[in-house]
Design a protein that fits this description.
The protein is of the alpha+beta class and 166 residues long. Helix content is 28%, strand content 39%. The protein has a seven-stranded mixed beta sheet with strand order 1-4-5-6-7-2-3, with helices on one face. It starts with a helix and ends in a 5-residue tail after the last helix.
């Protein structure tokens, strides 16, 4: 009789220990890291984009490490030159907006941390009057609390074609 009670009790204990809690994520073999939104690094990148939209990048250089590298469509430059180039676009475009923005920080199991942001850049050419839309993808690689590498990718064809001569 003892054994009849003992077997169901042990079975219940084993089953209850092997069940995954309702809100716990079970990683697959292909799962590698986590994503956070509304965290400090994502907020910093949203502030970076907002500073661009406000046409005032003052203080944004503080985000970057001294040796940080910026790549814009595969062309390597410095973060300062990148920001200056972005702001110079105001000479050619007005009514600049970023719509459908999404930003998140990826914390990989290896310890690497990236904040990515996606949006649609829209501006009206001062030379042609054409409104240009371009999807933008940007990735900021962090080491500690500084960005060491930034990559901006976007289709610049229509942007360049509609710059015109000022």
């Amino acid at each position: 009789m003892k054994y009849l009670l003992l077997i169901p009790s042990i079975s219940l204990l084993i089953l209850s220990c092997s069940q995954v809690p309702e809100n716990q994520l079970v990683k697959s073999e292909h799962h590698f890291g986590t994503i956070e939104v509304d965290d400090a690094k994502s907020a910093a990148m949203d502030a970076f984009n907002d500073a661009y939209l406000a046409n005032d990048m003052t203080g944004q250089a503080e985000l970057f490490a001294e040796s940080a590298v910026a790549n814009v469509n595969g062309v390597e430059t410095t973060p300062a030159a990148m920001m200056e180039g972005f702001l110079q676009g105001r000479n050619f475009y007005s009514d600049i907006t970023n719509s459908d923005r999404a930003t998140g920080t990826f914390i990989l199991d290896s310890g690497e941390v990236y904040t990515n942001t996606w949006f649609t850049w829209t501006g009206t050419s001062k030379a042609t009057g054409v409104t240009v839309d371009s999807p933008v993808q940007a990735s900021f690689k962090w080491e500690n609390d500084k960005v060491v590498e930034v990559n901006f990718l976007y289709d610049s064809h229509d942007y360049i074609v509609n710059m015109g001569a000022e």
